[in-house]
Amino acid sequence: MEKITIKAQPRTSTGKGPARRMRVEGLVPANIIGSGEAKSASVVEKEIQKLIDSGIRKATLIDLELDGKSEKVFVKEIQRFPHTGQIRHIDFYKVTPGKKIQTTVAIKTTGVAKGSKAGGQFEHLVHEIKVKSTPEDLTDVITVDVTGLDIGMMIKVSELPHPQSWEILVNGDPIVASCNKTKAILAAERAEKAEADAAKGKPAAKKGAKK
């Protein structure tokens, strides 16, 4: 995972007034939550917006620098003003080395399924899963190569590549991606079967035939 760093400044004043003045100065009020405490801070709006625009995910770990120390955090919640979309407040969650955290990891596919090239319908059904992982083993996205996926084949959650230390929190073993037969393929198969039956001397089934 690429290292991402953002700087924060200590914040001593709280309330609507000081927060409003901070936003005028291009800062965003923030809380850093973890280890049973919450620290008040602020971050530069342009920097945090750039970070969000870069495509950070729920499980993206960030090195947050505050008071000369660097702590690993991820974005827990972003509040925005409903009419303008401007960031109103942001909460960071501080992680503890070696201690498992529960978060959501994205699932991305790469390549073109073999079955798609043969006329099948590729479907990506599960786009994220909940996991428990230590910060050291955490990655914010699982990338699955679907190149070898032929018509009638599927990839389940249990087949996803992931560190052995992860606890995947899902019910059952859902299908992540599959390549299915289309209506055109099914129709062609029926027609082929009918021709084969006719060649063997079997009468073709008639629609709506009375018993």
* Structural class computed from helices and strand pairing: alpha+beta
Query: In percent terms, what proportion of residues is strand?
Result: 35-45%
Radius of gyration: 26 Å
Order of helices and strands: EHEEHEEEEHEEEEEEH
Folded structure, characterized:
The strands form three sheets. This protein has a six-stranded mixed beta barrel with strand order 1-3-2-6-5-4. A four-stranded mixed β-sheet has the order 10-7-9-12, with no helix packed on it. Strands 8-13-11 form a three-stranded antiparallel β-sheet, with no helix packed on it. It is elongated, with a radius of gyration of 26 Å. With 211 residues, the chain is an alpha+beta fold. The protein is built from four helices and 13 strands.
Furnish the topology, listing elements before pairings:
Layout: E1 5-10, H1 16-24, E2 27-34, E3 37-44, H2 45-53, E4 62-66, E5 69-80, E6 87-94, E7 101-110, H3 114-117, E8 121-124, E9 128-133, E10 141-145, E11 154-156, E12 167-168, E13 175-180, H4 183-199
Parallel strand pairs: 1-4, 2-6, 7-10
Antiparallel strand pairs: 1-3, 2-3, 4-5, 5-6, 7-9, 8-13, 9-12, 11-13
Summarize the structure.
By secondary structure, this protein is α+β, with helices and mostly antiparallel strands. Helices cover 18% and strands 39% of the residues.
